[in-house]
Structure formats: structure tokens, C-alpha cells
């Protein structure tokens, strides 16, 4: 036995190091694909001042930690290659016990970095937490429920669910949107990454969040605080549109529900069930507040808080058995017959 490793064999430590590098590479690839991929929830494709501040902070932190990573890993790899044990060299390397300049450097440098980052974060917080509400700002009361969002426009007399409509601004008028965030059950978190940062929605407390955008479009978000079984499917959509389109939408939403005699059977069935105790339909006896306002249900693009497209088939499936689409949701199945389902869905389809 010579004590030498046979040629061609890889030490266990080397294999583990290789696996670690591979996992790190996959982790960086996943991180990059999650952050920089195109889509409505991309955190770097921002369209609002608060989100712009967060993006700047993100890039700054990424650059700082990236530079630290490269310096540390570069020094580590250099030392591994430069001072590795070579074949035939049995001498003991020099033993160095401490270095005051190095110890001062690795204490002062991180302290300065943390201090600078603290100042930058503080500036970003001040920018995001805008307290002066412009006279033309749009105020919306946002209420978190398990597991859907309620949007109430107090100045317009409009209440809707899961789809927040806002007007865009221009170079002369920012047209800020201020949200009063409330919860009726558990802690939620309102997050639309292209418009602003996360803000907790806490029972018994009103938190304030604002944003403003000049770009029309659909911006997606979701609850960012675990709130129960369907937390991952507590989605929301922000529709930014021109002031003229927003005014038309608001005027339509303020109207009472359509009373079509052709669907009287479905309307009567709705009023005879517990539906009217949970939902509101303006112009009818239904005035429940536990579930979404259905006055203009068919004007929305999705059902079940963004889970499925709002079309007749999905609407029928949702009414028939909500648990098949959103397991754990608080809406029960009434075990309706096929004829009753047809009548009820026909009535709901008139609620534009």
C-alpha cells in the first residue's frame, strides 16, 4: 500500500463539490427565469413610481451581493488552485495566526456596505409611503376575504370583486390611485408587483398603498400572505385604462341589475336560495355582504378570483359544484337539478 489514490478515481469531496456547483447553477437559472421572464407578474417590468423604486433597490442589492459573491468565490477558487497540495510535496504549509489589517478590513467593509444599503432602503421607503393625497386621486377600499378581493369605490358608489379598474395618467397628471386595505377574516397581503410592493391586509386595521401608471394594460397580482387552503388561488387583476374607458365602466357598474322577464324563473330561484343572503344584486332583495357583489357579474373576465375564465360553461360548473374548481372555498353546492341550473345560469348571464 502506497497511500496514493489510484488514477481515475474522484474523491468523495470532489463529487460533493461538483454537485454543489450544479445545484447552484440550477438555482441561479431558476431565479433568473422567475424574475426576468416576460409576463404580468414580472417584478422588473414596472410601470408605477413605487414599483420603480423597488426595482432600483433590487438591482442595487443584486449588484452588491453579486460583487461580494464574485470576490469571495474568486478568492476561494484562486486559493484552491494556487495553494493546492501537489504530488510529491509532503512539506507543511506555513501557519499564519491572525492578521490585524485583514480582520479590520472584513469588519469595516461589511459595516460600510450595510450602512449604505440602509440609507438607500430608507430613501425607498420614504418614496413609496406617499402621504399627500392629490385632490384628483382615486380612492378605493380593498377588503380581503377568504379567498377573494372586494373593491369598493366610495366616491362612485361602485362595488366589484377581484378586478380593480383604474384610470391611467399622463405626463401632466399622474392620477394616483390610493387603496385603503382592510380584512374581514385573516391576514392577507395585497401584491401587484408591476405597480407597487406588498402590503399586509390586517383585520381591524387599515393600511394604505398607492400607485400610478401611464400605461394601459392588465396587471396581475395575488395575495402574498398565507391565508388558508386557497391562498395560492387568491388572485387579482388590475385593469388600467384610459380615463374615458374608466368613466364608461364606472357608469355601467353604478347601474342596478338588468331585470329581464325572460329569466324570471332563474331570478326567483336565486332569491329562494341562500344565495341572496351572501351576495348582493342591486335592484333586488339580495343584499348579502359575505360573498362577491353579482350585480354586474358578466362584466368580469374571470370567476373564482381569477381561477377560470368567465364563460357560460365555467359559470355552470362553478354554480353546480364550486369545490370542483376551488376546493375549500366557502361557497356550497345546492345540489340543483339540471333544469334549475339552466334557469339560474341563464339569469346570472344577464348580469352585465
Please provide a written account of the structure.
- Among the domains are: 138-245, Sandwich (Immunoglobulin-like); 261-349, Immunoglobulin-like.
- The chain has eight helices and twelve strands.
- The chain has helices at 12-36, 49-82, 100-128, 243-253, 264-272, 275-278, 312-320, 338-348; strands spanning 138-145, 148-153, 158-161, 163-167, 177-183, 188-191, 199-201, 207-211, 217-223, 235-241, 302-303, 308-309.
- Helix 2 (49-82) packs antiparallel against helix 3 and helix 5 (264-272) crosses helix 8.
- The protein is elongated.
Looking at this protein, list some descriptive labels.
12 strands; Immunoglobulin-like; single chain; 352 residues; 5-stranded mixed beta sheet; oxidoreductase; EC 7.1.1.9; alpha+beta; respiratory chain; 8 helices
Helices and strands, with pairings:
Blueprint: H1 12-36, H2 49-82, H3 100-128, E1 138-145, E2 148-153, E3 158-161, E4 163-167, E5 177-183, E6 188-191, E7 199-201, E8 207-211, E9 217-223, E10 235-241, H4 243-253, H5 264-272, H6 275-278, E11 302-303, E12 308-309, H7 312-320, H8 338-348
Parallel strand pairs: 1-5, 4-10
Antiparallel strand pairs: 1-2, 2-3, 5-8, 6-7, 6-9, 9-10, 11-12
Cofactor: Cu cation
Domain Cytochrome oxidase subunit II transmembrane region profile: 35-132
Transmembrane segments: 56-81, 102-122
Amino acid at each position: 500500500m502506497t497511500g496514493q489514490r489510484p488514477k481515475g478515481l474522484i474523491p468523495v469531496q470532489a463529487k460533493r463539490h461538483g454537485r454543489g456547483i450544479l445545484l447552484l447553477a440550477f438555482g441561479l437559472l431558476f431565479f433568473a427565469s422567475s424574475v426576468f421572464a416576460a409576463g404580468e407578474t414580472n417584478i422588473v417590468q414596472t410601470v408605477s413610481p413605487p414599483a420603480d423604486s423597488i426595482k432600483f433597490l433590487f438591482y442595487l442589492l443584486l449588484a452588491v451581493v453579486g460583487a461580494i459573491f464574485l470576490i469571495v468565490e474568486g478568492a476561494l477558487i484562486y486559493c484552491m488552485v494556487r495553494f493546492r497540495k501537489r504530488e510529491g510535496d509532503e512539506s507543511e504549509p506555513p501557519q499564519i495566526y491572525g492578521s490585524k489589517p485583514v480582520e479590520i478590513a472584513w469588519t469595516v467593509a461589511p459595516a460600510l456596505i450595510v450602512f449604505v444599503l440602509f440609507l438607500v432602503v430608507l430613501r425607498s421607503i420614504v418614496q413609496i409611503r406617499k402621504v399627500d393625497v392629490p385632490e384628483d386621486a382615486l380612492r378605493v377600499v380593498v377588503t380581503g376575504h377568504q379567498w377573494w378581493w372586494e373593491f369598493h369605490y366610495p366616491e362612485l358608489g361602485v362595488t366589484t370583486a377581484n378586478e380593480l379598474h383604474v384610470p391611467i395618467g399622463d405626463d401632466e397628471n399622474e392620477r394616483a390611485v390610493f387603496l385603503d386595505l382592510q380584512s374581514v377574516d385573516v391576514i392577507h397581503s395585497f401584491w401587484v408587483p408591476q405597480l407597487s410592493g406588498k402590503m399586509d391586509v390586517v383585520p381591524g386595521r387599515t393600511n394604505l398603498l398607492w400607485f400610478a401608471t401611464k400605461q394601459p394594460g392588465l396587471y396581475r397580482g395575488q395575495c402574498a400572505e398565507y391565508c388558508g387552503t386557497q391562498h395560492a388561488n387568491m388572485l387579482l387583476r388590475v385593469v388600467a385604462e384610459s380615463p374615458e374607458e374608466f368613466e364608461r365602466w364606472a357608469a355601467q357598474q353604478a347601474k342596478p341589475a338588468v331585470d329581464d322577464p325572460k329569466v324570471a324563473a332563474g331570478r326567483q330561484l336565486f332569491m329562494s336560495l341562500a344565495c341572496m343572503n351572501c351576495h348582493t344584486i342591486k335592484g333586488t332583495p339580495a343584499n348579502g355582504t359575505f360573498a362577491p357583489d353579482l350585480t354586474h357579474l358578466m362584466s368580469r373576465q374571470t370567476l373564482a378570483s381569477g381561477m377560470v375564465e368567465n364563460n357560460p360553461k365555467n359559470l355552470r360548473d362553478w354554480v353546480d359544484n364550486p369545490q370542483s374548481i376551488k376546493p375549500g372555498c366557502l361557497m356550497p353546492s345546492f345540489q340543483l337539478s339540471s333544469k334549475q341550473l339552466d334557469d339560474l345560469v341563464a339569469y346570472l348571464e344577464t348580469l352585465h
